[in-house]
């Protein structure tokens, strides 16, 4: 049976509000096949690019920003006529409603969408309008909990008001479980693990409804139901958590129950004032009649599209577009029986863990009963089941000639799919669950669990080709100089190198922290290359970029925030190196002009900011010959720059760059030493921005020529000790100077040095036989190996 809609959609233009995750790719493919021009509002996705005509890049969680971006696009593309707006992504239902209001499109007004999206407000609406609804109470305080326990009849269901799917929906059987579960949900729900909760974090409780649960998929236009399909939810675990296992079409309910459901749904939508929408209506049939559970204001997810199309021949994606652009839809006359009997089935593990084995027999794809299959997970991926999460490997839909036939076909199909989920082991980084009794709700650090799965994923997948990982690059994309090097060079170079080698790469700009942080916390990246020169383009906040990644529990290359901050704090670093007997120039420091400087220090001295790197605040004037010049320079650093001052005896010999790769004794490698030799032996021989650009004053030897082997070994060993003492990871650069007697002294450690072509690290790697791409791939592998070995001190929890 085909829908009777003769108007063509070819050439029509729609705003698609968010592509969603890659598992929604089939929607983009269908929109393209229909012949639509698709303009996406939201984050640009590489996988979606072939199906998108234009991108309106925006942070969709900032509604004002997203609407302004759409408005600016319209102003700049007046030749484009946009026919409507639609979303298939739950998080953007409210934004879509605002766009509908702002630009006069067909759809659900925001005033209605907001009321429906808030499950507690929806309960209140039903109660006021005489629609069946379970008794319910909002929970904000201990008093609310006690009142709910007295007024309501157990069992109860506790849930977030703005949650999606069944996340954090828990059944409780007594007052103690209610209190425990409320505290668990309150401490665990957050917008990182469940982005739908950005609309609000309210929690409420309602009486549990005993009965058959169904989904009703509805096409509503001009207030009339043009099509509906009722499917049974079966094998749904209601012992404690509500996990969808499968749905079946047609519904096996008696005809009178189906009629009652549709009357209830129609009345509910009419009283809500919803006129035009694709609705995924969740309801229950009880001894007291039908009850609405949720009204989802977009097409149902996962296999809903597949089983509706297979069973009834109705294309809900096409219907959603026709509704959005106001193209008239004729009422679909459904036959008594579907074209096929359909079961949609979720592939779940038995407990939270890592997907260790996964194989689908190719013979399954040859079976006529297999309608469609969507697989989301790969080997090494984490899978979280309640209470940690609601995840599956994917789904499949199968068909049959009748109810028993389709059930038999499902049983056979599942025999062709083999997978094993290994529970998180005792050595896992993940937080552990503790239960007070076998029937109590799990109490644990859910936030740690949800974030730490990224670490576990990299740890478990270390033996898989790193090109299977989604690599993020965090950097600065402003075009101004960071100490002589344009900020965006390294991220752009490395992105190009990795993409040319088949890597999947996404860029995140921490120069624009608000956008960059929001994008990366929602992105499904497995490992980040940290190239950030400074948060919000402030070089003084370089270590904070690593701290932000740590706060999100995202694995990243290079040293942790503590090491980066310590390397920048020259005073504390000098104290640490002195404790370990690492030779450094004799020194002292001052925070104010009143702090005395050790009179035993011998001129010439060098004065520099004690909390900066990359030669910031250092010039030829930093070298002082007497007390007067010392006081002048201290005044400049402390009073004018507003920074503490480090004062060192000046070491006037050649400078050596020691580039080190690795994190522990087993993988540490020192690349060929580079030497900076000064042509003018009478100059003050320091690095500043002027000398960096004026190569007539110095020359670089790489590798260093005619160096005494004993000196080479000594410099190498001192640099390695410094690197290890500072707990550096993956790569770093130690700067060493020698005096007139070739005695080496450690000047600085750069724990996150530039990887730009032509800089010290890339040059040393080139001499070693690695080009820029080889170097970055090696750093990725070193980081992965570090996680595999459990060296997780990138993260301070």
SS strand fraction: 15-25%
- CATH classification, class level of the domain at 114-341: Alpha Beta
Q: Helical residue percent?
A: 25-40%
Structural class: alpha+beta
Number of helices: 22
CATH topology of the domain at 114-341: D-amino Acid Aminotransferase, Chain A, domain 1
Written account of the structure:
- This protein is an alpha+beta fold and 797 residues long.
- Among the domains are: 13-105, 3-Layer(aba) Sandwich (Rossmann fold); 114-341, 2-Layer Sandwich (D-amino Acid Aminotransferase, Chain A, domain 1), CATH 3.30.470.20; 342-461, no CATH class.
- The protein contains 22 helices and 34 strands.
- The strands form eight sheets. It has an eight-stranded antiparallel β-sheet with strand order 13-12-9-10-11-14-18-16.
- A hairpin with a 5-residue loop joins strand 33 (731-738) and strand 34 (744-750).
- The radius of gyration is 32 Å and the shape is elongated.
Kindly list the characteristics that best describe this protein.
8-stranded antiparallel sheet, 22 helices, disordered C terminus, 6-stranded antiparallel sheet, D-amino Acid Aminotransferase, Chain A, domain 1, alpha+beta, Rossmann fold, 32% helix, 797 residues
What's the quick description here?
It contains 22 helices and 34 strands.
SSE blueprint and pairings:
Layout: E1 13-17, H1 25-34, E2 37-41, E3 54-56, H2 63-76, E4 84-86, H3 93-103, H4 110-117, H5 119-128, E5 136-139, H6 142-151, E6 156-160, E7 170-172, H7 175-188, E8 203-207, E9 212-221, E10 224-234, E11 246-249, H8 255-272, E12 277-286, E13 289-296, H9 304-312, H10 316-325, E14 341-347, E15 353-360, E16 370-375, E17 382-383, E18 394-400, H11 403-415, E19 417-423, H12 446-460, E20 470-475, E21 481-482, E22 485-486, H13 489-500, E23 504-509, H14 513-522, E24 527-530, H15 542-551, H16 561-568, H17 570-579, E25 587-590, E26 605-609, E27 623-624, H18 627-640, E28 645-649, E29 655-661, E30 669-670, E31 674-678, H19 689-693, E32 698-701, H20 709-725, E33 731-738, E34 744-750, H21 760-768, H22 772-788
Parallel strand pairs: 1-2, 1-4, 2-3, 20-23, 20-24
Antiparallel strand pairs: 5-8, 6-7, 6-8, 9-10, 9-12, 10-11, 11-14, 12-13, 14-18, 15-17, 15-19, 16-18, 21-22, 25-28, 26-27, 26-28, 29-30, 29-31, 29-33, 31-32, 33-34
């Amino acid at each position: 049976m085909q829908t009777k809609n003769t108007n063509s959609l070819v050439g029509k233009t729609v705003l698609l509000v968010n592509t969603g995750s890659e598992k929604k790719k089939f929607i983009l493919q269908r929109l393209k096949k229909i012949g639509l021009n698709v303009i996406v509002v939201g984050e640009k996705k590489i996988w979606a690019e072939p199906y998108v005509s234009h991108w309106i890049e925006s942070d969709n969680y900032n509604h004002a920003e997203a609407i302004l971006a759409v408005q600016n696009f319209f102003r700049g593309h007046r030749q484009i006529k946009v026919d409507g707006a639609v979303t298939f992504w739950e998080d953007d239902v409210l934004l879509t409603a605002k766009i509908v209001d702002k630009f006069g499109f067909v759809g659900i007004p925001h005033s209605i969408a907001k009321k429906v999206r808030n499950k507690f407000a929806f309960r209140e609406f039903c109660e006021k309008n005489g629609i069946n609804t379970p008794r319910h109470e909002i929970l904000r305080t201990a008093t609310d909990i006690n009142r709910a326990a007295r007024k309501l009849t157990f069992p109860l269901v506790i849930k977030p008001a703005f949650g999606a799917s069944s996340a954090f929906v828990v059944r409780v059987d007594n007052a103690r479980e209610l209190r425990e579960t409320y505290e668990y949900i309150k401490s665990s729900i957050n917008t990182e693990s469940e982005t739908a909760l950005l609309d609000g974090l309210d929690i409420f409780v309602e009486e549990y409804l005993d009965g058959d649960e169904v989904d009703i998929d509805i096409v509503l236009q001009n207030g009339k139901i043009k099509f509906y399909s009722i499917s049974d939810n079966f094998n749904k675990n209601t012992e404690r958590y509500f996990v969808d296992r499968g749905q079946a079409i047609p519904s096996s309910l008696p005809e009178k129950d189906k009629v009652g459901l549709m009357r209830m749904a129609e009345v509910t939508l009419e009283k809500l004032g919803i006129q035009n929408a694709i609705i995924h209506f969740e309801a229950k049939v009880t001894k007291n009649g039908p009850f609405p559970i949720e009204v989802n204001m977009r097409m149902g997810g996962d296999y809903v599209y597949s089983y509706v199309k297979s069973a009834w021949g109705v294309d809900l994606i096409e219907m959603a577009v026709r509704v959005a652009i106001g193209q008239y839809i004729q009422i679909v006359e459904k036959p008594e029986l579907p074209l096929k009997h359909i079961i949609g089935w979720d592939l779940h593990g038995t407990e939270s863990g890592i997907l260790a084995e996964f194989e689908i027999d190719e013979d399954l794809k040859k079976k006529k009963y297999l309608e469609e299959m969507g697989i989301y997970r790969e080997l090494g991926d984490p899978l979280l089941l309640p209470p940690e999460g609601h995840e599956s490997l994917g789904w499949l839909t199968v068909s049959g000639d009748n109810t028993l036939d389709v059930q038999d076909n499902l049983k056979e199909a599942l025999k062709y799919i083999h997978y094993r989920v290994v529970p998180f082991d005792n050595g896992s980084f993940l937080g552990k669950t503790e239960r007070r009794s076998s029937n109590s709700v799990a109490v644990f650090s859910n936030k740690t669990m949800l974030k730490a799965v990224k670490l576990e994923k990299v740890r478990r997948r270390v033996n898989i080709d790193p090109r299977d990982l989604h690599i993020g690059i965090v950097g600065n994309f402003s075009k101004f100089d960071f100490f002589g090097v344009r900020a965006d060079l390294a991220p752009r170079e490395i992105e190009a190198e990795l993409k040319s080698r088949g890597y999947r790469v996404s860029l995140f700009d921490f120069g624009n922290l608000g956008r960059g942080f929001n994008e990366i916390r929602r992105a499904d990246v497995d490992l980040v290359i940290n190239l950030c020169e400074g948060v919000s383009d402030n070089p003084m906040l370089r270590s904070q970029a690593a701290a932000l990644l740590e706060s999100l529990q995202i694995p990243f290359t290079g040293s942790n925030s503590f090491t980066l901050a310590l390397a920048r704090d020259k005073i504390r670093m000098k104290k640490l190196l002195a404790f370990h007997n690492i030779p450094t120039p004799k020194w002292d420091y001052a925070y104010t002009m009143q702090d005395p400087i050790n009179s035993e220090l011998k001129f010439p001295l060098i004065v520099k900011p004690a909390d900066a790197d990359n030669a910031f605040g250092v010039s030829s004037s930093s070298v002082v010959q007497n007390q007067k010049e010392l006081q002048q320079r201290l005044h400049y650093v402390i009073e004018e720059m507003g920074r503490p001052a480090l004062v060192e005896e000046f070491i006037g010999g050649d400078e050596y760059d020691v580039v080190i790769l690795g994190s522990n004794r087993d993988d540490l490698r020192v690349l060929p030493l580079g030497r900076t030799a000064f042509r003018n032996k009478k100059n003050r021989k320091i690095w500043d921005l002027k000398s960096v650009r004026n190569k007539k004053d110095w020359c670089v030897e790489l590798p260093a020529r005619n160096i005494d082997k004993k000196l080479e070994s000594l410099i190498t060993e001192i640099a390695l000790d410094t690197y290890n003492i500072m707990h550096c990871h993956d790569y770093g650069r130690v700067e060493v100077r020698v005096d007139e007697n070739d005695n080496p002294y450690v000047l600085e450690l750069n724990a996150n040095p530039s990887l730009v072509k032509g800089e010290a690290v890339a040059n040393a790697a080139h001499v070693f036989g690695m080009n820029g791409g080889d170097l970055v791939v090696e750093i990725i592998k070193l980081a992965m190996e570090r996680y595999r070995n459990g060296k997780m001190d990138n993260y301070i929890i």
